[in-house]
Amino acid sequence: MFVFGTIVLIFENQIFKRKKMNKLIGKVAVVTGGNSGIGYATAKDFIANGATVIITGRTATKVSAAASELGAIGLVADQGNVKDIDNLVAQVKDQFGKVDVLFVNAGIFNPAPVEAISEPHFDNQMNINFKGAVFTLQKFLPLLNEGASVINLSSVNAYTGMPNTAIYAASKAALNSFTRTAATELAPRKIRVNAVNPGPVATEIFSKSGLPEEAINGFATAIQQRVPLKQLGTPETIAKLVTFLASDEAWFITGSEYNIDGGINVNPLLAN
Ligand SMILES: NC(=O)c1ccc[n+]([C@@H]2O[C@H](COP(=O)([O-])OP(=O)(O)OC[C@H]3O[C@@H](n4cnc5c(N)ncnc54)[C@H](OP(=O)(O)O)[C@@H]3O)[C@@H](O)[C@H]2O)c1
Known about the structure:
Elements: H1 2-20, E1 28-31, H2 37-48, E2 52-57, H3 60-70, E3 73-76, H4 82-96, E4 99-104, H5 119-140, E5 144-153, H6 157-160, H7 166-186, E6 192-198, H8 213-226, H9 235-246, E7 257-260
Parallel strand pairs: 1-2, 1-4, 2-3, 4-5, 5-6, 6-7
Helix pairs in contact: 2-9, 4-5, 5-7
């Protein structure tokens, strides 16, 4: 009797597990900046949930290595370049016809104090983080199925006033505003548009920022202390939220933003 009960329990657990991992069966998903960090982890979670995934990136070798590790399709496109976006959309159209999930994730983080902001610094961050996001969504519009889900990867920096992040933060605040307007415009097609605002997450974005290693390590330790949960986020945990928003389970959610930040966006002035 006991053995039979245990077998039934294992069987039910397997079914339950399988159900949990089937959120995106039959869906075609595009993940921009999918060769590392949050994009990579999300592409992995999308695939584990049954989606066919196309990842993009700006560096051919990194894109093809990540795509073969993941079992995804890798396409090279600089998301800050509108011609590249056109080309990307044409390739996705040729190979897949339609898209169900668009994860607009590619981004860069280049800190600088206000007095050191140069025109190239401004243009580069705005081009990739904001202009690129706008034209990625716009150019994919004809391919998006009714009921498609668009998730824009923003940041709690849009709200925190953190020193040295003026342009990065502005690029993300602009993205959040764009998210709300796109959500209302696309609602008649039942296309949902949402934003995710992570707090600090351990990824390569900081080593690519141009800051020296000691400064990055010092920053990571200091910021971890400011997070009420006293931990940095992981790409995998951000991926879980994105997968939920991508799935039909989130059908009533659009024009919203989700902080996933260990509580850092709560005023930390009186926190230990
Ligand atoms: N990590 C955090 O603490 C944090 C917090 C809040 C929000 N975010 C946001 O999360 C997103 C992902 O960042 P991450 O932390 O996962 O960093 P990451 O590991 O550096 O991943 C960023 C991805 O975007 C790609 N990318 C950058 N510029 C691109 C361009 N012009 N065209 C195409 N691809 C481009 C990168 O390619 P390469 O490998 O060639 O650079 C990489 O694949 C970004 O939008 C970032 O702003 C991150």
